[in-house]
Amino acid sequence: MRVLTYDFEVYPNLVVVTFQSVKTGEFFVFKVTESVNELESLHKFLETPALLAGFNNLFYDDKVLKWVLFNRRLSNETFLKACFKLSSDIIANKRPNIPTLDIFKNIRFLDLFTIKASGMNKVSLKQLAINLRWHKIQDLPYSFDKVLSAEEIEQVILYNKNDVEITTKLYKKVEKKVNMRVKSSETFSVDILNQTESGIADIILEKFYKKIDPTYNFRSNTKREYVNLGDCIAQSVKFQTPQLQKFLNQIKNVRYVPGKKCDFEVHYGGVVFSIGVGGIHTQDAPGIFESTSEYNYRDADGTSFYPNLVINNNAYPAHLKKEFIGVVQEIINIRQPAKKAGGKAFKQLKSLDTNDRQYQDLLDYAEEQMSISNILKITANSIIGKFNFEHSWLYDPKAFCRVTLTGQLQLLMLAERLYQNGFELISANTDGVVAKIPVARDDEYYAICKAWEKDTLINLEYTDYQKYIRRDVNNYLTIKPDGELKQKGIFVTDVDLYKGFKHPIVKKALLEYYVNKTPVSETIKSEQSIYEFCISQKSGKQFQMQFWTATHKEDLQKTNRFYVSNGGGNFVKVDKESGKVNRIVADSCVTMLNDVDESIPISEYDINYDWYIRQVQDIVDIIEPRQLSLF
Fold it and tell me: Whole-prediction pTM value?
């Protein structure tokens, strides 16, 4: 099936839809104006089966497309007027009745907005374009209700084409996630193509639970005014020291009110542990920890920690049958062999020629197994969050506390046993404990861990770190003996598609400094892509973004890209009501860069390299004493 990205623009005197083939890059443009009508050609174009991928198209473009084809034989004047009204009604959430045609039996719709969109992760296509390092960032050039001139019509079509190109690049970026949804939809006989990860988990869990309770309506849940935490802690939670025994009793006597903050702290083993109804973490000071021939820094992590805690503690919502535990176990039992089989198949592919007849069959099998594994991982890991989400059919605060509180206290048990036997504690977070292990005491360390595994029924996985660099518990870099990296927070160099874009060169320079001891100035000044220095800024409706120089003030669009420069001007946000002005970068000039000419060499951008070096220096100064010679 061909895959096409597409996007509509609707004005009082223009309806245009642009498609692009993901495979070939070819464009197909169909429009209606007062004198042109290309809808019959559009109808013929869509007679061939296709997957149509858009951005937020389930809300808007899909509806417009169905209406357009159904009404394609109206006169141009009537069509334009009616289509503009339809578009306005959709935007205003009036939910107009949209007829459909048999042609859509050959069409599948994919909304790339749903791949990640949920809560705070919702971002605009323009922000995604910046994150994808797209050359042209452009908001709608004219108000949606403007009657366009001939020249403006051409500009809107160019704008429309640019949005489709961005959508194509986004599709390619998330294509593996799309394929995972397609394959898993077939495997589990469900439709999860346009679901968020949370939505996928709901559908899979519902399908599994229906096997044991076919009549359940998935609308009820268990709300509680309070939860006695003493009723939520497993019998296996036992401490050896009076300090932690007292701490445990303190927690047991607490009555937790769902939705309210409920945190506890204990200073133990030279570390401050924070425990609540969420996850355990330590309050970690900045530092660098490096293994030697005499000792190793080792992380012991609970395997499938939360799903196994659900099973081990018989934690299920009160309104569901106890067989729900079997559902969780079944998901784990299916996932584990699928993960193993997929991994084995991918390894076997390395020994085959891509032209070998067996290659494609083995690739299909590997992708199918890994899709099953990944979907079920998403599903299993979502359960604990749904226990604590009041709009979920799995909601039950007591079940949530039984899992999270028991898990945290069991990790604290491991930390206590290690410390009581003379092992230095370094950190704890979510599902694991990091400690300093003398090489000569490896056997003793593993014996302690094995005993803990027997008591808690949680298996541990071990990871040795050659080097562990951290600013705090959520921002760290680890380097394994084989050179493999684990990056969190400020050390993550890959750009998150669903967050703001903020000078990736800073993280790249930070990583190079700690991994390869490359001077920060060398990394920054040798970078040849202007995109790596860029920063994004989006404003709300209450603000007007402006660019100020000594001679003029220029109004800007809502979503903008810029970099810090020696010359240029000031990028400001002006409150439309109060007139209050805030500089986006207070300590330097900037240059706006919504349009990038990729033929321009980096030397012509007049980058303020010292500013970027300072950003890295500020982080390093927190982690370790300033090393001026390395800058």
Answer: 0.92
